[in-house]
Amino acid sequence: MGQVNDLLNAKSVLSWDARVMMPRGGAETRAKQVATLSVLARDTLVADETRRLLDAAQAEIQSKDADSVEATVCAQVREALDYHDRIPAELIRRRTEMGSIGQEIWAEARAKDDFAMFAPLLADTVALNREMAEHIGYAEHPYDALMYRFEPGETVASLQPLFGRLREALRPLLQTVMSRTAPDVEFLRRPFPVDEQLAFGRTMAQRLGYDLDRGRLDTTVHPFEVSFTRNDVRITSRTNENWMPMCLFGCLHEAGHALYEQNCDPAFTRTPLATDLVGLYAVAGVSFGAHESQSRLFENHVGRSRAFWEANFGTARDAFPEQLADVDAEAFWRGVNRVAPGLIRVEADELSYDFHIMLRVDIEAGLIDGSLKVEDLPEIWNARIRQDLGLEVPNNRMGVLQDVHWSSGQIGTFCNYTIGNVMAGQLYEAATKDADVAAGVAAADYGPLLGWMVKNVHQHGRRYERNELLRRATGRTLDPEPYIAQLTQKYSEIYGI
Amino acid sequence: MGQVNDLLNAKSVLSWDARVMMPRGGAETRAKQVATLSVLARDTLVADETRRLLDAAQAEIQSKDADSVEATVCAQVREALDYHDRIPAELIRRRTEMGSIGQEIWAEARAKDDFAMFAPLLADTVALNREMAEHIGYAEHPYDALMYRFEPGETVASLQPLFGRLREALRPLLQTVMSRTAPDVEFLRRPFPVDEQLAFGRTMAQRLGYDLDRGRLDTTVHPFEVSFTRNDVRITSRTNENWMPMCLFGCLHEAGHALYEQNCDPAFTRTPLATDLVGLYAVAGVSFGAHESQSRLFENHVGRSRAFWEANFGTARDAFPEQLADVDAEAFWRGVNRVAPGLIRVEADELSYDFHIMLRVDIEAGLIDGSLKVEDLPEIWNARIRQDLGLEVPNNRMGVLQDVHWSSGQIGTFCNYTIGNVMAGQLYEAATKDADVAAGVAAADYGPLLGWMVKNVHQHGRRYERNELLRRATGRTLDPEPYIAQLTQKYSEIYGI
């Protein structure tokens, strides 16, 4: 399992390098190198030797509790073997091929605003994922099988009430907010030199607890966090000279992800408790949603809070004395929380983001169970955007063709964003019930909050399933009420509701 | 073989990253990831499946000439399998362990100037390498077996006349040079901002033909070149604000290495003709010495030539208008060719460098055949430096303890530097017999020279053994006379001999 972890970490290094450092000529042979590492990681995992060692290990630890580290590791390896055994190699090969041609077709279709050009590929992707779901198996809905790789335990049945409650609570809140006067953001559009933005983002990420001796910050087109064990956890951001929140909150978001990885129990290094053996990805976070909870918590609950800017605005003004000369902490805090629903998911504000996600999850589930047809997507998409956000979609480029995801051959990857938001709210509520955490948060000292997250979330790596982790940390499984209450409170304050 | 190449390239990416980008915390787990890739590359190479495929391939190509690409590839794979089969895995494990503890012991011994502290490790390293040599096998001298991995075909017997001739010719030349007035170099010690030095080095590397769309330049402590297929060939340099030649000639040297890799036949990508299956390293250059010939040729024959600076001094002065205000092309050319023998190999000038190498090779061969004893090394070292360079070695830190090499568990790695110098001279002489190349060189147009190198050296990758490559390119095997003649001519001109 150490070797599997090494191979997957090596693959992550090659992918980081490809996105951050690689000269453009390297793309073709790099793809082959990454593919070889993928194949060898899977081959090493499913090898007879693994099964032999696993049998021996399980025989040896029979006397241990089922929730001991040893028994958990063995159970997870067994589960991953079962998962991979169910998926024919030929299907993986077809999905890889589809992914490798898909991106180009999608990019051209999007550039030409031509949904009909993309539709056959999407139909094939749906058919292939449906086939994949049948092999993986499911109790109720084929989409459940596809979510398993990203958000194990989550099902269409569990998402429906969650999404219903979010729509019910957030739609009127968003409508009210949109009827009020928005805070000023013009000062955020002044020219902020990009190198200084990065330096400031780095400083703020460190202030959250991100350890640069075990990490680094670079720029890239599509920001991400990636770890090569807890000892090397890197983040990226992007800059816009005339929109300073992009770089800053990119840094805080990815630093939130990074904190999860940097604070996993060191004893779990190079073990299955820091390796996603189902998704074949070297990561300590237990699900994509759990991971997103940490990025959103540190980006939004911390980085967009009034207390944070009361404490840190001085640093911002030192970094940008001219740009922020006529701004104060209060105005800065209000500005970075402005709600402005738009058509593009990756640019969405905190309050409208979930509507983008719920739309995509509903469409994916409908495509997979056959209740929606590919050719109807533009109409469905545009109607939902009108209904949820009150916006007209002028073309498919700004609508159904905007995301890269479906061109990669993957379906089932979206729900974690909203689960992350909800989970962040729930964990934040539970953490701030602790007197030290609450006092720290009030005084913009986030050490106690990070300590609570390390103790209740980060250190456990992949030891507990997401809902079990939540139950241990908060006393209950996924619950949207804290998140809804927090959004309602913050935006009522900012918008004078 | 494609997989083996992918794994070795992945290992190279991880090593580049470790030396150029990695935060310090990542070192421990990165070493494990690199080790896993090494083990899997070797396992994949020596697997039964490889032997089965090789047998099948050899049966299939029986009708091909022995020097066809197909037959050459098969023969090389067979030779690599034979090599690895001869070395017990347990010995490799011991050498890896020795290397991993050795560096720390060496660093401490060097810091404390305590040879006795390092001596036991060196004795163990010698014993282990002697054991390795017995397994690898040799006709005359055990050191030949150790050089095989780096400079196949080279032997103690072939090096002795080469070294004898170099000493005979270069010692009096060096002595005469040292008796004359040295060119002024004070202007090279003015403050040159490091970012501008790097930009200038990048420009000059591009002027040699280095393709930055398939490469990149970074800074590091110990500069190197590394390739991840011909499509991604990276160089590094280092800067000293008060010694501008360091960065500049570092860039030209590594660019010379890079040209070899960037210009290998694209058809050889991911094949054994771009993979050192004996040394388990993804490289297209056929030997370490052949590789060094290209770095030294572009650094010295091109980059330190009068014609180069007559053509490029204007660019230098545009980059550094203040620092070079009172300097002209002639003075610049003379300055960057100043001879100043010193105690430290990595800082040696062109004319004294080979003496450092010959000393180390003679010591290694003597240690391996038992004619030298570890405890006598300081005395032997200091006597040779006195004899060859006329310098007194004040301590072992500046003498026998200066190099990292022996702490890595490796012996046999040094001769390629001098072979590279000699080979560069020989190839340069042959190339400039071509009228177009000669006209180009005279006019500082290096396109024809590079074209000749691509045609006669680079494109062939590892297809021909080094001496066969030399024979095809120059009509004869390794010959020091052109190199000696070129050094004599250049330094006679600069020093008015």
Automatic annotation (TrEMBL), chains A, B:
Keyword Ubl conjugation: no
Cofactor mode of binding and number, as noted: Binds 1 zinc ion per subunit.
Record EC number: 3.4.17.19
Residues that bind Zn(2+): 253, 257, 292
GO molecular function: metal ion binding; metallocarboxypeptidase activity
Biological process according to GO: proteolysis
Reactions catalysed: Release of a C-terminal amino acid with broad specificity, except for -Pro
Family, similarity comment: Belongs to the peptidase M32 family.
Designated name of the protein: Metal-dependent carboxypeptidase
